[in-house]
Amino acid sequence: MGVAKYTKDERGAIKEVTYQSGIRVKPVYGPEDLKKAGFTYEQDLGAPGEYPFTRSIHPQSYRSRAWTTRQYTGFGTPEETNERFKLMIANGQNGLNVAFDLPTQMGYDSDHPLAEGEVGRVGMAIDSLKDFETAFAGIPLDKIGSGLTINAVATIMMAMYQAAAEKFGYSKDQISTTPQNDILKEMIGRGAWIFPVEHGVRLVGDSIEYAVKELPKSNPVSICGYHIRESGATPAQEIAYAFEIAKAYIDNVTARGIKPEDFVGRFSFNFNVYGNLWEQIAKFRAARKLWAKMLKTEYGVTNKKTLFLRGLFGGGGSGLTKEQPENNIMRGAYYALGAALSGAQTTALCSFDEAYTIPTPRSALLSLRTLEMLMDEVGLRDTVDPLAGSYFIETLTLEMEEKIVEEMKEVQKWGGMTKSISEGFIQRKVSRQAYEYEKGLQSGEYRKVGVVPTSESGDSPDQETEKTAVELHEYNQEWAEKSKANLKELRRTRDNKAVTKSLKDLETAARGSDNVMPHLVNCCHAYATVGEMAGVFRDVFGEWNEPDFY
Amino acid sequence: METTHKIRVLIAKPGLDGHDKGAKIVALALRDAGMEVIYSGLHQTLEQIVQTATQEAVDIIGLSIMSGAHLPICKRLITMMKKQGLDDIRLTVGGVIPYQDIPGLKEMGVAAVFPGGTSFEDIITGMNNLFE
């Protein structure tokens, strides 16, 4: 039943409940539980907007402002992505969350042999600044912030975003971008890594340093527990590993002589909302508190706003099922409720058809509407942290905090996050858990409604459902042809001497310890391609060899 | 082929997609079912996959594809396998595969398709059945 473990007696009454993070839940909670856990309002909660921010980072939370919705969008050519961006904005979306195709994510141009069949497939294809100019044409970049879902070459896309904004006449201090830029999580899950661990972390460090000095409104890194959770981590590990990753980046930047106080306020997080509702809510409340505590005690951060755990808490794709895809519409709504009860500042939902295809405009809009209903129809904006004081939620929040700390200690015992990933400790642990969980789902130990059909008998109805409920997103071979033709034209018409010079400067910076960012901005302005810039990094840094996962 | 030896499977991730949870858990399940499993790692070219399959003398290649590019990838791989005389290696594919694409994949020579949501048991039986 559910994603937690349930033991029942012969009459079907629930005897034991154990959450994925390893917490046993009692049938009834009362004041004695809070007393036993040593709970005090001042120390464990505090007023919303006050340390340790368990309740909220803002005193008025959704009263002052509803959450920001950022559906993940982008496919095909920059022209088509631009149209979809405008459609989402016209429909009320107030931030962009940009999807790039795999060749772009992996630093290859559209005409690279490895890009074949992939150009524009899972996101938009970007080869040069020309494409960014098209994709963001007519978008008010001083008002709309953009999340860029890019990691291994995040530095390149950040530079390109700045270059495009400058072309449109905005200055770099007006724009707000959040590149995902979390390479360590790519090495645990999602897999869009290129360079070895230490070089990957250096690039993240370069972009943070640059943002601190040059891009006052941008958030250079969004640490993603989300994908770690998708890969098989428990909710407690999701937070623990994200925090340990954050520490690896903090250490890189402080080694450059910058104080944590001056930059950690720019970190944001991307966390997953799927699983048991209460466990999710407790997870987020504990995470806000722990992050603030950690920054204060371990890194000496004192500025209140710098202690905020900011982020996107979004509905997880792993929770959705391929079977009976329309059920995912309701699942998404419950995840969104969890996110709202957790005080998510920014949110997004996987669309119901994502087990099959890239969301269509119809399904993406459905997700957006689901999020709006919570804010505008059913009352989630009424009061801050409505579950505070619940015997159960407060006990659970304290227990989650303990579990997260336990998981962080294990990573520290392994030698910190960079080492744990280089050696494959985390990947092996998470894959093994994913396997055990999947076995549990298949044996019925865990239950997903509609997956092990209980009311239907015989043949799976999925094939019929797919035909009626899901409209498949078609891949268009013309995207690749068009990108390739544009690229050819670009190489012919740009000032190739300027390109070569900018790439040479980039190489010198990459080999030395100069920050690569200003050089990348120059490369972008000269219309160097993503493949050319990433090619410089490939030559200088080499590529990562994954450790065995067995 | 008589299965006097353990079935050897290469679980491979072709192309640029890095979503490897499915590949990894299927690898673990096949191993627990007594098969010898080699995992390719991420970002493999089809040339690399064919080379590993030859070197490791596998009986089955199990491709894991999430990006939607299963049709062109399988088509190219089959052509390459035929060219190199690897017709005895069975090609199977899993991942985000719409049901409507299964007949097309089978037609081009894919021996079995295991779309996301297929149980471990069905994958294991499906693979064993390829040698009956």
Radius of gyration of chain B: 13 Å
Number of helices of chain B: 5
**Helix and strand sequence of chain B:** EHEHEHEHEH
How much of the sequence lies in strands of chain B comes to: 15-25%
> If classified by CATH, what would the architecture of chain B be?
3-Layer(aba) Sandwich
Count interface residues per chain for the largest interface: A-B, 47 and 33 residues
* Global geometry of chain B: globular
Features:
heterodimer; A: alpha/beta; 4-stranded parallel sheet; 21 helices; B: 132 residues; alpha/beta; Rossmann fold; 5-stranded parallel sheet; globular
Structure in a nutshell:
With 550 residues, chain A is α/β, with parallel strands linked by helices. Chain A has helices at residues 31-36, 41-45, 78-90, 102-105, 129-135, 154-168, 183-188, 197-214, 225-230, 235-254, 277-299, 327-341, 361-376, 391-413, 417-422, 425-443, 462-469, 477-493, 496-511, 517-525, 530-541; strands spanning 5-8, 14-18, 24-25, 68-69, 72-73, 95-99, 145-149, 177-179, 221-224, 267-273, 311-315, 346-347.
Topology:
The complex is a heterodimer of chains A (550) and B (132).
Chain A: E1 5-8, E2 14-18, E3 24-25, H1 31-36, H2 41-45, E4 68-69, E5 72-73, H3 78-90, E6 95-99, H4 102-105, H5 129-135, E7 145-149, H6 154-168, E8 177-179, H7 183-188, H8 197-214, E9 221-224, H9 225-230, H10 235-254, E10 267-273, H11 277-299, E11 311-315, H12 327-341, E12 346-347, H13 361-376, H14 391-413, H15 417-422, H16 425-443, H17 462-469, H18 477-493, H19 496-511, H20 517-525, H21 530-541
Helix pairs in contact in A: 3-5, 5-6, 6-20, 8-10, 10-11, 10-14, 11-12, 11-14, 12-13, 19-20, 19-21
Chain B: E1 8-12, H1 21-32, E2 36-39, H2 46-55, E3 60-65, H3 70-83, E4 90-95, H4 102-107, E5 112-115, H5 120-129
Parallel strand pairs in B: 1-2, 1-3, 3-4, 4-5
